[in-house]
Write a structure and sequence with these properties.
The protein is an all-alpha fold and 143 residues long. The protein has 5 helices and no strands. The two termini are 34 Å apart.
């Protein structure tokens, strides 16, 4: 969804290839989900519902349907994925270029984040995991 309180961010997002189409599909999917929620609550506004006034909704098909939807991508989704991949690739290359003896992990993360922003990404798709020296052996460590 577009950030309503950030007009500059809206303009940048809408300029991306296929974003407007992807946004329209997301709005349609949200409307469908809201309709399903209304049915589950029994507030469909339909006066021809069952005698108890409630509709029984089976969600058994949802898992297979969602799995199929996740596996199939529209042209808009492919466009968004390609744009994210391009930006992420540029960020990785910038981080690799910044690597030198003595540089700190947080400095490499900063190089990655900066390059991602310069490439047009509004946010990262995943948190940075930067490990160097003794931290390089375990990438998901926490302190």
């Amino acid at each position: 969804m577009l950030p309503a309180d950030e007009p500059q961010q809206q303009a940048q997002l809408l300029a991306l290839p296929h974003f407007a189409q992807h946004q329209q599909q997301a709005v349609q999917q949200l409307a469908g989900l809201q309709a399903l929620q209304a049915v589950r609550r029994g507030s469909t506004g339909n006066t021809n519902s069952s005698s108890t006034g409630r509709i029984q909704l089976s969600t058994a098909f949802l898992e297979s349907t969602l799995r199929r939807c996740r596996a199939t991508k529209t042209a808009a989704e492919v466009g968004c994925l390609l744009e994210a991949s391009r930006g992420s690739s540029a960020a990785h290359k910038a981080m690799w270029a910044a690597c030198k003896p003595g540089i700190k992990e947080f400095q490499l993360e900063a190089a990655f984040t900066h390059a991602a922003g310069q490439a047009g990404l509004m946010q990262l798709g995943y948190p940075c995991i930067v490990g160097a020296g003794r931290n390089a052996a375990i990438l998901h460590y926490e302190r």
